[in-house]
Amino acid sequence: MKVLVIGNGGREHALAWKLLQSDKIEQVVCVPGNGGTASMQGCQNLSLAVDDFAGISKYAINNDIPLVIVGPEVPLAEGITDYLQSQGLMVFGPRKEGAQIEASKAWAKALMAEAGVPTAKAAVFTEAAPAKAYIQSEGAPIVIKADGLAAGKGVTVAQTITQAEEAIEAIFQGQFGAAGSSVVIEECLLGQEVSVLALTDGLTIRPLLPAQDHKRVGEGDTGENTGGMGAYAPTPIATPELMARVQIEVLERTITALKSRGIDYRGILYAGLMITPDGDFRVLEFNCRFGDPETQVILPMLETPLEDLILACIEQRLADMPPIAWKQGAAATVVAASGGYPGAYTKGKVITGFAAAETAGAIVFHAGTKLNAAQEIVTDGGRVLNVTGLGADFQQAIAQAYAGIQHIQFDQMYYRRDIGHRVLK
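Above: the chain's sequence. Below: its structure in token form.
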């Protein structure tokens, strides 16, 4: 079977890598892919834009590729699944209507209220003045979110009213483009964030291993929010007892609410949770796709063939599948980023050390990379690589990831040196 994977990040490299471990998968085509997918045996890149739905469809049909897996949220929100399904292709990822759960935080908040999903108190505004008045009445700290898609960067945890008002001004003045046509203002919840990615066929929903991301750029969880600087799984703070509650109170209630709206949601439902100091939880937001960098620690732990799970979701037979099988132990990944990220950074820096990192036992997933004319791997984004380690426990997994990243080199490379600090304590 051939598979086409949409996207060019570390998540998509991990998806292609996992699929190619199966003897049922003969080839993976990545659109547009990156330097890692271009270099992997059994994988090739196709230089099309992720929103070129007609071009993607034509290529898949002409090359006998029946299955498309969509990595990023933007093409899902723009309706890629609807289009490709209309052309007779199987697609893993929700249709446009279901993808609103990530594309609009306000829409997701309304769905959670309807479903009885525990979440933070929030209000939605389309103008700055009433938003600022609300902030004055609520006080700080408070969370300001651009309503639409902002590549993981549209959230400000404001410690003061002044900070919150500045965030409101920036959003309404176009910092995040169309994503900032409205804002969601939420109470600030304290605790630890956990990512629960779940597979669903629209009827049944099954969680994958709970993971913990490190969103802040600086060590000690300081500095600006990013798309994620590292992750580990399975996070011990998501106990079996807590996950049993999440299954009922979050995952099943959400799928039921989607069904009640006539939405046939098949793909990944990703709940970002805040685990409060008293051990309770609230949903911060939903995503409609695999997380990044969570996928880079979840898939290396997966024993069940990925394509079997994906096809079961598409064909609405997830309930008939045996329990998902996992490796014992833990996984951790460290992001190597371009200097300046999440702000301005330069591209085109030559990267070395891949073979030595893999000899040290790490798995290197490419994110912002490409092959240049000289067939060198060079930087091509803010988050450049994910260096993943596996181990019998977190100490081993984290040590292996850092042992691998010591061999990676490119000009102005930056990475956090405290990934997994909570579990190591």
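The chain has a mean pLDDT of 96.
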